[in-house]
Design brief:
This protein is an alpha+beta fold. The protein has three helices and 16 strands.
């Protein structure tokens, strides 16, 4: 039997139709009115644009499968095409977003002639903590009249506030020897700046792009009140996104 437009259906038609019966409906609301009558006689109710239950379930399963596949792909992705922070060379990232080239970054601290301690963490309250989990370096520039332009090198024992750590800074323009500043925090959270000011001997052997490493050595005398001692060591830190001051 050919489909009968719903606008031509009258009460008499409903009473005299016999199965099998096919009715073409123009909307879901109309379908709800007739569904129980047609179901009783095995009729087929079809609404233009409607999707069967089996089709909907199949589509849902396919979508879920697609989501699961994309989720697995996202979890296993480990590389970035634009480089760390979107700047510099392409690099593969490790845990915590730290570039693979920066694995094993460190800052050494030898106090006087004593043993050497190795700082292997970013400082949690530093600009670099949002980009790396290991000791880091970055340029700071800007400020009023663009007066600030310096390289900062930081490393701590762990990322908690006031952890033992060392912060070095200097005006640099590439590998070479420079005078700079230092601030050493000991295990008791005491702060020791360099003495006299600007007397840190900083030597840069290499300055990589963002996502690569900055390497070199330093030596300084630091003091607080009547306590003074020398510190020195080598460093290999991760060059993270540079900071631009307003």
């Amino acid at each position: 039997m050919a489909p009968i437009p719903v606008e031509r259906i009258g009460c008499a038609d409903l009473l005299t139709w016999r199965c099998p019966l096919t009715v073409e409906l123009g909307g879901l609301a109309t379908a709800a009115v007739f569904s129980f009558l047609l179901a009783a006689c095995g009729g087929d109710v079809s609404a233009p644009g409607a999707q069967s239950g089996d089709e909907a379930a199949g589509s849902g399963a396919s979508a879920a499968s697609g989501d699961a596949s994309s989720g697995e792909g996202g979890a296993s992705a480990a590389s970035t095409g634009s480089g760390f922070g979107g700047v510099g060379t392409s690099s593969t990232t490790g845990a915590g977003g730290t570039p693979a080239a920066c694995a094993g970054a460190f800052v050494e601290v030898t106090i006087d002639a004593g043993p050497t301690s190795t700082l292997g963490s970013v400082c949690g309250d530093d600009w670099s903590a949002q980009f790396s989990s290991v000791p880091a370096g970055y340029y700071v520039s800007g400020g009023p009249a663009q007066a600030v332009s310096s390289l900062h090198l930081v490393g701590c024992a762990n990322a908690t506030p006031d952890s033992e750590g060392l912060r070095l800074s200097a005006q640099v323009d590439g590998p070479g020897a420079y005078g700079g500043q230092a601030l050493y925090t000991d295990q008791a959270k005491n702060l020791f700046p360099e003495l006299p000011a600007g007397s840190v001997a900083l030597t840069l052997s290499s300055v990589g792009q963002v996502g690569e490493t900055i390497e070199g050595t330093y030596q300084a005398m630091v003091a607080k009140d009547e306590i003074a001692f020398s510190i020195k060591g080598a460093f290999r830190v991760c060059h993270v996104e540079d900071e631009n001051l307003p």
